[in-house]
Structure formats: C-alpha cells, structure tokens
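S1.2 Input.
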Amino acid sequence: MQVTRFDIDGLALLKPARFGDHRGYFAETYSRRRFKELVGVDVEFVQDNHSLSRDVGTLRGLHFQRPPTAQGKLVRVVAGAVLDVAVDLRHGSATFGRHVAVELTAEGGEQLWIPTGFAHAFCTLRPDTEFVYNVTDYYSPADDGGVIWNDPDLAIQWPLAADQLILSDKDMKLPRLADLPPLF
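S1.3 Output.
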C-alpha cells in the first residue's frame, strides 16, 4: 500500500495494492494493523456508508459531526470518480481553514483518510458514481453540521461552474466557516 501525506497534518491518501489477472483484481482495502502501521492511527470503524450519485456535478458536503460523535472517515469510490475535499476545522491548528482536494476514482482505488476535526465533501465527475465511507462513530442528527460549499474564505476550486452543480437544499443553507464556533 502506498501512502501520501499532505501538508495538513492527519490527512493521508492511501493506494492499496491490486493483484490482477485476466479475471479482474483483488485488493485489501483495509487492515486495522496495516492502517495503524502506515498512517499511525488506530481506529475502529463502526458504520459503513454507501451513496450513489446519478449525475455529474452532484456535490455532497461540506459535512462534519460535532463532538461527542465526531467521525474520522476512510473514503473511496467504487464506481465513477469524484473530487474529494477535506477542510481543517481544528481551531489552534496551523492549517485551520485550509483544505486538500484530491481526485478519487474506482479504477485507481485511492482512499482518503480524514480524521475527526475536518469537514468533508465530494463532487462527482462521472455519472452513476458510488462512494463508500467507513466512519469511526455512529451518525447523530443532533451533532450534524456543515460549512457552505462556496465559502469564499476556503477558495475551493470545484471542477464545475456553480450553475452546473447539484446540491441538496440543506447543503445550500450551511453557514460560512467564520460563522461557526470553535468545535474541535
């Protein structure tokens, strides 16, 4: 497994090895022991989520859960492709408010580790994109939060123009980062 680290502490891009032949391939997508060895974090995933986005330009996020149910996420694409974005919400962090944006594809098998304290979003680049995420805590509607996708302070370069993006009503009404209290 290859691991790429970013200049925002805690985030890691993982690329599991694939062993293939004429039938297809096999990949070990998660091993708790190997993850701890390579990423330096010992996590227990308690819930798996799987979403399907039919249209190119579907943008989901920027979402997070507040403590006490804050979630770390290991995310990947199993069909299609996305631009995946993680924003540092950790007050006191040298990289507070900065983000990482990476393309994840089903063909590439890349995974992004997003620790607690980050907002997360993705924008689909292909139709019928399926996105899978393993999380370290259970979903809690009471702790659900987010940051508006087009916050000018974040300056995220989305892959499509604003009028080509498809968002939920909820995601269009989220606050700016500057309007959030310290959460992490």
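S1.4 Remarks. The chain is about 5% helix and 40% strand.
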